[in-house]
Amino acid sequence: RYIVDMATFADAPAPDIAAGEKIFKTKCAQCHVAEKGGGNKQGPNLGGLFGRTSGSVAGFAYSKANKEAAVVWEEGTLYDYLLNPKKYMPGTKMVFAGLKKPADRANLIGYLKQATA
After folding, report:
1. What is the tens place of the pLDDT at every residue in 25-79?
2. What are the C-alpha distances in Å from 81 to residues 19, 38, 63, 111?
């Protein structure tokens, strides 16, 4: 029996977009809107997420940690962040424990790439 290390997005399974949408609706939508121009909720609007720098959505009150981290959001950084947001970015206001399963993170990222474009 082999243990597959999926420590990076490149090693993760191909995303299942429908599964990612379900994860977004059950774990993210209470605090985030995916579509551009959808406004901020408890968390910032995610429209245009890929290629954006953390802490940069106008009108959202980010934590100092999020603003100073200056993370550029792309598949790899989101994959790492979504495993454990508070460990990845100590001081973040995001109250989400994370997604431990590599497939869940890959699916959510696949969905977000479409939904936030």
Report:
1. 999 999 999 999 999 999 999 999 999 999 999 999 999 999 999 999 999 999 9
2. 19, 23, 15, 16
